[in-house]
């Protein structure tokens, strides 16, 4: 099993290097002999012109090369084939774990450091198996989609290679059995996101967005690394199993500090307040990259790490309380911002922040299974929405909602697929988002009504039998084991006030999500066309990929019926449907008054503030960016005038002193002899006089 998991991560890793080095060569090899160039023809015409047999013609502009056929596209084949193989292996791993639950661990190497050893190993269990399967599915869809979407891109080879590396890094995070190995994959994802967001670096906006994403996530990663070190040193091991098994022996202060530091990295990677500002700007990158980042990698990694180290957070209720508050601010604030966005991709970006906060809220109230279920459902419908948005953008030539309208008539595949995605996002039954959101809402309702307590049953993808992760007993120095597949905390997971805040925030988010999803859906596919472009579905590779993703976005929710906490509960399910219906109806009524206008006009004076996401970027620019730039300018001036001046002055002083001293060293032997004789006379006179 460990060997299979290793191959799942290694195949995309190898594809990244092979695609970068061999992709163009394979394309040339598969294309056969090149078509004869037009050089000979042009030379013949030139000769005729010189002989007077032909008229001179203006030079033709060079035609861009035709994109290779998908089956002759070397980088595409090198990228898609290994990821497809990884998907097959990941499915085998997931099926095996489903049939025989339980963790499998394997150590590839043991590094002795003189203090805490580092175990380079992997761990396969239900949680890692199902998330790894989701990552491979979305990565393969993005690769296949990109074959057509990026067909004319001159840097497609590096693009495909970085996607493979991105996928391998996320799979390393998923299957890592050691915290430091997990951190390696965590950081590789960060650098890959920098290169992919800034793929079209010649556009200044793209390069700035890449730098912003890199710096903001690095800021959170500082805390994340410190949290790993605190846990590893405290538990005397970096093994995830070892850390979780020794949680009960760690001091409360150590656990709380480590959990809060880890949350800093989670907030950066999963784009949660206050480190969320990089994600909307990251929409400057190619649309398939947005799908990969938002659905299966990077932003999902933060939520996954909290679930993987959930035993730490359960014993640090203060950190869970912070997570709950951050989740509420992120989910409601981002949903409000999505209501006022003019750019379709930015609508989906703020939607991602909000939905990730829903998962974080589930983790905060003790509903780990529901949170992971929503992570899987979100991976399906958000990949669908972004890739469908790419289809719309290719046809319309614009990201702006105002440029769309009436697209359903000429783009039936995209319309029905995106309809399924928006329905899942809004939580409309029987689509996947309805099942997963209802599970989170039900858990939050239970926590609010029972004073923050949470009773949860682990599903088949629990990372290990929970009896191995002891929970603290109030007033006792040790720990008590919980039943094998269930746990019930003696103390509330979070304070009742936080549980109520999370519950009410979730209900508000359901309304807002349905409203902005309905607005984007109506402005894109209904009303009169607002452009002069031809409305038709994009190439089949793109449209078929989108249609394939519509299947899990529609039916994935039914796969959770095997666990009682993932089945719809009448009260919360009915309440969620009613609230979603209210939000969708409000957006429809405003749009129906004037289908040619933007329903966001109903926001009135609040719209500019929401469109700018409450001016958080402007606040950071005023409080952090501009002062840092001013300090940098003063440092440059001080360096140039003081430090460089001191060094330059020392050099000038040495040259001046040397110039004065060299006056006696002029190269004239007579001067040297005269000085020598004069010195001898002075010495002799001194000896005679003072003898």
UniProtKB/TrEMBL annotation:
Lineage: superkingdom: Bacteria
Keyword annotations from UniProtKB, A to Z: Membrane, Transmembrane, Transmembrane helix
Protein's membrane topology: Multi-pass membrane protein
Pro residues bias (residue ranges): 61-70
Residue ranges constituting the NADH:quinone oxidoreductase/Mrp antiporter transmembrane domain according to the UniProt record: 176-446
Record-linked InterPro entries: NADHpl_OxRdtase_5_subgr (IPR018393), ND/Mrp_TM (IPR001750), NU5C-like (IPR003945), Proton_antipo_N (IPR001516)
UniProt main location, coarse: membrane
Region ranges (Disordered): 50-71
Transmembrane portions of the chain: 76-98, 127-150, 156-175, 180-201, 213-235, 288-307, 319-340, 352-376, 383-407, 413-435, 498-521, 541-560, 572-591, 671-690
Cellular compartments annotated: Endomembrane system; Membrane
Classification via Gene3D superfamilies: 1.20.5.2700
Domain NADH-Ubiquinone oxidoreductase (complex I) chain 5 N-terminal: 111-159
Protein name: NADH-quinone oxidoreductase subunit L
């Amino acid at each position: 099993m460990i060997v299979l998991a290793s191959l799942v991560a290694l195949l995309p890793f190898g594809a990244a290097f092979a695609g970068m080095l061999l992709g163009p060569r394979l394309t040339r090899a598969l294309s056969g002999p090149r078509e004869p160039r037009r050089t000979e023809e042009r030379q013949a015409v030139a000769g005729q012109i010189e002989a007077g047999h032909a008229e001179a013609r203006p030079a033709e502009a060079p035609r861009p090369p035709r994109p290779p056929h998908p089956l002759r596209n070397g980088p595409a084949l090198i990228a898609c084939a290994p990821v497809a193989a990884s998907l097959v292996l990941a499915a085998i791993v997931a099926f095996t774990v489903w049939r025989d639950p339980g963790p499998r661990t394997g150590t590839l190497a043991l590094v002795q450091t003189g203090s805490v050893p580092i175990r380079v190993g992997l761990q396969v269990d239900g949680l890692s198996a199902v998330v790894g399967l989701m990552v491979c599915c979305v990565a393969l869809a993005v690769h296949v989609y990109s074959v057509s979407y990026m067909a004319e891109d001159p840097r497609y080879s590096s693009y495909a290679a970085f996607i493979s590396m991105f996928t391998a890094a996320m799979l390393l995070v998923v299957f890592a059995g050691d915290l430091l190995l997990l951190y390696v994959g965590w950081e590789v994802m960060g650098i890959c996101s920098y290169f992919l967001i800034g793929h079209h670096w010649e556009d200044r906006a793209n390069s700035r967005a890449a730098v912003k994403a890199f710096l903001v996530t690095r800021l959170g990663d500082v805390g994340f690394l410190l949290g790993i070190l605190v846990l590893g040193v405290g538990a005397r091991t970096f093994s995830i199993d070892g850390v979780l098994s020794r949680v009960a022996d760690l001091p409360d202060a150590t656990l709380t500090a480590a959990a809060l530091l880890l949350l800093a990295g989670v907030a950066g990677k999963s784009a949660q307040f206050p480190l969320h500002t990089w994600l909307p700007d990251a929409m400057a990158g190619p649309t398939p990259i947005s799908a990969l980042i938002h659905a299966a990698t990077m932003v999902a990694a933060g939520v996954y790490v909290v679930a993987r180290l959930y035993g730490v957070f359960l014993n640090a209720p203060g950190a869970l309380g912070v997570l709950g508050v951050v989740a509420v601010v992120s989910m409601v604030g981002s949903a409000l911002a999505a209501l006022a966005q003019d750019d379709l991709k930015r609508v989906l970006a703020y939607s991602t922040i909000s939905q990730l906060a829903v998962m974080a809220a589930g983790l905060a109230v003790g509903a780990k299974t529901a949170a992971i279920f929503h992570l899987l459902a979100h991976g399906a419908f958000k990949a669908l929405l972004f890739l469908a948005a790419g289809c719309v953008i290719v046809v319309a030539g614009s990201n702006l909602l105002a440029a769309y309208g009436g697209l359903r008539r000429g783009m039936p595949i995209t319309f029905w697929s995106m309809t399924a995605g928006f329905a899942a996002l809004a939580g409309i039954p029987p689509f996947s988002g309805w099942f997963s959101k209802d599970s989170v809402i039900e858990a939050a309702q239970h926590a609010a009504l029972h004073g923050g307590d949470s009773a949860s049953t682990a599903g088949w993808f629990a990372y290990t039998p929970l009896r191995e992760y002891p929970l603290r007993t109030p007033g006792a120095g040790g720990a008590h084991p919980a039943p094998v597949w269930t746990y019930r905390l003696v103390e509330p997971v979070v304070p009742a006030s936080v549980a109520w805040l999370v519950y009410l925030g979730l209900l508000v988010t359901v309304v807002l999500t349905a409203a902005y999803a309905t607005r984007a859906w109506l402005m894109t596919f209904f009303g009169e066309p607002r452009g002069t472009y031809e409305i038709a579905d994009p190439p089949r590779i793109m449209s078929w990929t989108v249609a394939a993703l519509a299947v899990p976005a529609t039916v994935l929710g039914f796969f959770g019926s095997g666990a009682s906490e993932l089945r719809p509960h009448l009260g919360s399910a009915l309440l969620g449907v009613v609230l979603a219906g209210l939000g969708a109806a409000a957006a429809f009524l405003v749009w129906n008054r004037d289908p040619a206008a933007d329903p966001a006009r109903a926001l009135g004076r609040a719209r500019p503030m929401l469109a700018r996401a409450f001016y958080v970027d402007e606040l950071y620019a005023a409080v952090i960016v501009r002062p840092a730039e001013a300090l940098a300018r003063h440092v440059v001036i001080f360096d140039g005038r003081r430090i460089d001046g001191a060094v330059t002055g020392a050099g000038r002083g040495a040259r001046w002193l040397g110039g004065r001293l060299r006056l006696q060293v002029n190269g004239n032997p007579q001067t040297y002899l005269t000085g020598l004789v004069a010195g001898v006379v002075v010495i002799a006179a001194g000896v005679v006089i003072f003898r």
